[in-house]
Predict the structure of Alpha-1,3-mannosyltransferase, putative.
Amino acid sequence: MRFTLKKISFVLITLLTISIGYLLLQSIDLQRIRELLHDDEKFDLESLKQASLEIRKEIHYTNYLFSGYDNFTKQFSDDETIKQTSLNDKCKLVFNQWKVSHPDFEFKTFEPEYERYDKSSDRKELFFKERINELRKRFEKDGNNRDKKFTLSRSDNKTISHEYMKNVKRSKNVLQFMADFVSMMRLYGKCFFGRELDDELNSIYTEYRGKLFPFITNQAPKFRKVGESEESGWPIYDDQKNIIDRKTEFGNNPIEFLQKNSKGRGIVISVSTRYAKDTMRLIKILRALNNRLPIQIVFKNDITKKNIELLEFAAVATPEELFDPEIIRDGAKFMPELNLLENYKNYGSEFPVQDLTFVNIVGCVSRPYRFSFPGYSNKILAMLYSSFEEVILFDADVVPTVNPQEFFDSKYYKLSGTYFFQDRSLRDFNDFIETNFFSTLFPSNEKSIDTFFDIPRVGEKTFDNKYMTGWRHYQEAGVVAYNKMQHFLGLLMMFPLALWTEPVQSSIWGDKEMYWLGLSMAGDENYEFNHYAAASVGEKATEQKHKYYPNSESNEVCSTHPGHIDENGKLLWINSGFSYCKKNGYFRDKGKFPFSTFELRDLVKLYSSPIKIRAGLIPPDLPNHREPGSPPDTNPEMEFRKSWKSRKKDIDEINDKLPEGQEPYDFISEWGPQKGWVKNGICSGYYYCAYDKITSYSSEREFDTGTLVEFDSKSNELFDYLSKIWHTGGSKMMPKVKLETDKSGTDPDKQQQES
């Protein structure tokens, strides 16, 4: 066969064309090719919903598997061999393998929007709706389209679908990373906490500290007790609880240092200048309740010198100085018949000087993360960097109504090393994507790396709680009692939750759910909640003309303050101070029922006075909104929500979309409350009315019932006394006195530990 130059050129061109075509095919998304060849995708609503269901099945937490699972297990002949292998050997293997397979592994915040987990990943129909609306707005904005009708082409639908699948893929990758990261934290805790380590394990322990907790520096907080002029380092104690050293740096492994050197118990408050006034009030309340637990105020160099002096004064001044008429003159108008200086001893108050320490953590968070902790997450930093082992974490605006020692003495704390409180049982629901996300972070699957390391799986205690069964609010975090050493890994688990943007920040309110979530992520279900959910505390409505449901048998307590009552009917603490309305908006509210029936002078007096606590009403609990385990089929919960529309409307709903000309309802005479909590526009929306008898969600009974607690006269007197102290406690005046330290001769730091 003769090869002419022409034939050779033809063959070369043909081969080149085939090669280029092959390379082009390789560069095209194979999924797109399949779509072109088999273009049978449907875009009607039912088809989109079915596609959403398939995605929910794919991303369901039961399908999660640690990325290093197969690599780890293939090193062993069978599961039994893994179980018989020593923990040290398994730890070395899993961390060394991870280092090889993930050489660039490090903590990520996923802050840029293009990196984030997309919460519409399981709602294709919602994704389409939002994108179509964007296209429609763009079309209508174009002046050339004035006489044209907006239509959606198949190409438009395909483009939206492709964008949706890209989001789903990204979200799956983010979820896998986050779940793997939490799995690595669990392995870290199992392998290194509280164990004797050889040199190799110690090296891994230190190396992965930097990978898992890059936001923690080696710098220790700076401590300064009231009366001292110089800051000092972290206190190191001997077995007799004497301070033998002070450390200004943590050394190579801050995690190990913090775990081994947190000692004693006390109160921790995260404070900045913004919250200084409320903190002054809280300190004076603690003194009135004879608190003898030491207090640490944790801040980031963000309290002014003047406010530090005021906080010190609140902690150490004598009752004569605290209640000096010149100091409290702004608050003297509240209950003038109660003279605090003359009567405080009648309430059993001794006003002990408080063992107060300022803890400055300004250098403890590494520079790249310095602005990554929003206000609420400073509480988690405060808990970590407090030198206490056992902590009662107070929000600045809470008001305890019992001696704080009672939180440590409670049966819940003694049983578990925690004492948590439930939030209001509001009828606000969360979504599948949220509970499924958190479930993926829990050690819950039988086939898991956790099983080989004897890390406990979470069960009904977590999956059956209010949040995981579909309700938005479960924990109220104004007061948290927590044994850090007993639950150290659970504390650390809160940090990725605080630093990850989506889906965490839009799934929970601030830090409210982080405490039990962190523990469940650690495989630690040894935590306890107060028996009752939050109550509305204030005065029970007694006059029919002032009730929103005047003909209902339900009791009504309307208030801006949630309170927390134990199973014996004792009020333990309230939130949001003692003001009737912290927004002080009587002028805005004078036209709103029932205040529209008040004389203006009476309303002004009401708004300028403390709340009178005479009763606490705990509404009935809600049934599950979602079954445990985050079922992918969301139809049952949607049907449940649809059933609400067949119920009669509450006062917060009945005035929506009224026919033109119809007068709005101030109250409802024809039926009773449908929800246990009904939100009101009074006090800028902070006002809620609570009911203990509502139309049942079950067909088996007529009503669901809650609990009304009416406090006795002695308790009422105590509440009035505390409210007077709270209202006079925010004064920014103080006499020019020298703040003196404890002159008893006893080392205050030793006293602190013995407390």
In short: The radius of gyration is 31 Å. The first strand starts at residue 222 and ends at 225.
